Amino acid sequence: GAMVGILAGEPLYAPNELPLKVVTLTAKHTAMDTANNNVKANKPAFNNAIIARNKAFYTTKTGLVDVGQGSKDYVRQLFGYGTPEFRLVSPLKFRKLADVD
């Protein structure tokens, strides 16, 4: 913003290229400032969504990772290690990337 103000106040600054004109730079600055303010305003909601996602994935016993691994273990116990049923689920990998407990 300060740079655009300096350029606007300089009478010798008169570029022929549209992207370098003061009007275009002012519009670009306004768009960037608006986008930055939108990010700031939505950051708490984003952080809350990340927390909720981590709880859904990684909570002990009820999270997706533990339930998925438990289901895979159940199929192995029910059908056996070398069975076609277990071969369907054995490639699935479940691992915790965050601690929520």
Structure description:
- The chain is mainly alpha-helical and about 100 residues long.
- Helices cover about 65% and strands about 0% of the residues.
- The chain contains 4 helices and no strands.
- The mean pLDDT is about 95.
What secondary-structure arrangement, pairings included, does this model have?
Elements: H1 2-9, H2 22-58, H3 64-79, H4 84-89
Give a quick precis of the structure.
The chain is mainly alpha-helical.
Which features does this protein show?
101 residues; mainly alpha; 0% strand; elongated
Can you give the mean pLDDT? 94
Shape: elongated
Give the end-to-end Cα distance, rounded to a whole number of Å: 45 Å
Strand content: under 5%
